[in-house]
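Problem: given the chain below (111 residues), write out its structure.
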Amino acid sequence: MAGKFEITTRKNGEFQFNLKASNGQVILSSEGYKAKASAVNGIDSVRRHSQDDGNFERLTAKDGSPYFNLKASNGQTIGSSQMYSGNAACENGIASVKTHAPDAEVSDLTA
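Solution.
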């Protein structure tokens, strides 16, 4: 099974997407969008920007957990990862986004 983008609706009515790896694990989550078309544009942006390692911002949460943001060329965050148990796991998450994003199918769960 390949990776998959899932578009969902938040409780506040905004749209968001998650990129899931082939094992079903969420590896990247978007912000909320007012329009579904904006979420689709966000997915296209993930596809384009995920292939350049320089677009991944490696960060550390207050509790010491590593995570990452994927940034567009304008510096805006496109998506964020979950928290990881260590740096190696975080790097594996980045590698997973690079592998799955370009060819992931899009599943619209908002209908």
